[in-house]
């Protein structure tokens, strides 16, 4: 007689592909203080605007190659020649506004870090240094934005960032672990460890 297997319960949004599952299981909601990872996710969340996360997640490696490994200093040096090259790169979303925003956001990130020291410390200050742990029972209970994401959006825009509206900022907060929105039945609920 075969042994019974216990099915792992995950958030419903990640079902359907191994890449989605791996992202959910190892990264989404995990508190991150790594400056390059924080910058990468900020850029990727902005690239998602109007698209599915699946589209961006599939192109993530392409973005890493195209955008200097998400090294903000290197990306900040990109100019018109690099923009034109990126507009022909099929491994990323070829949208001029989003490409220019990624480069502009790199410049804003470097400028901000030069001014305040640690982007990570500044970002985590929005949640008093500790993840906000929600326990939604259903995906419908997860908000699209919050007062905190609106405040983060306002501050990022004030500092020159683009594609950082309140909804994008909330998704960003989830992605880097400022917020843990794993549904209560998900095996990842409450198990996030910092990266």
Q: How many helical stretches? A: 10
Which stretches are low in confidence, meaning pLDDT under 50 for 5 or more residues running? none
Estimated structural class: mainly alpha
Give me the oligomer status: single chain
- Let me know the CATH homologous superfamily: Hypothetical protein, domain 2
Overall mean pLDDT stands at 93
The largest sheet, given as strand count, sense and whether it forms a barrel, is: 2 strands, parallel
What's the architecture, going by CATH?
Answer: Orthogonal Bundle
Strand content: under 5%
Rg for CA atoms: 17 Å
CATH fold descriptor: Endonuclease III, domain 1
Helix content: 40-55%
Count of distinct strands? 2
Lateral strand order in the biggest sheet: 1-2
Task: Give an overview of the whole structure.
This protein has a two-stranded parallel ribbon with strand order 1-2. The chain contains ten helices and two strands; from the N terminus they run ααααααααβααβ. It has one domain (13-180): Endonuclease III, domain 1 (Orthogonal Bundle), CATH 1.10.340.30. It is mainly α and 195 residues long.
Summarize the structure.
This protein has 195 residues and is mainly alpha-helical.
Structural key phrases:
two-stranded parallel sheet, Endonuclease III, domain 1, mainly alpha, 195 residues
Describe the secondary structure blueprint for this structure.
Blueprint: H1 18-26, H2 35-48, H3 53-58, H4 60-66, H5 72-76, H6 80-86, H7 96-116, H8 119-124, E1 132-133, H9 147-158, H10 166-175, E2 179-180
Parallel strand pairs: 1-2
Helix pairs in contact: 2-7, 2-10, 9-10
């Amino acid at each position: 007689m075969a042994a019974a297997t216990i099915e792992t319960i995950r958030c419903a949004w990640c079902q359907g592909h191994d890449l989605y599952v791996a992202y959910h299981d190892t990264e989404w909601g995990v508190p991150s203080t790594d400056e390059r990872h924080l910058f990468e996710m900020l850029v990727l969340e902005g690239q998602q605007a109007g698209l599915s996360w699946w589209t961006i997640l599939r192109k993530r490696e392409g973005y890493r190659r195209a955008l200097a490994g998400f090294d903000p200093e290197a990306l900040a040096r990109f100019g018109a020649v690099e923009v034109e090259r990126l507009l022909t790169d099929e491994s990323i979303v070829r949208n001029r506004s989003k490409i220019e925003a990624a480069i502009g956001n790199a410049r804003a990130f470097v400028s901000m870090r030069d001014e305040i020291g640690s982007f990570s410390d500044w970002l985590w200050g929005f949640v008093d240094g500790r993840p906000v742990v929600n326990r939604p029972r259903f995906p419908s209970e997860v908000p699209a934005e919050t007062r905190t994401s609106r405040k983060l959006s306002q501050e990022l825009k004030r500092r020159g960032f683009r594609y950082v509206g309140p909804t994008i900022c909330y998704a960003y907060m989830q992605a880097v672990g400022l917020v843990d929105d794993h549904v209560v039945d998900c095996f990842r609920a409450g198990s996030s460890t910092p990266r």
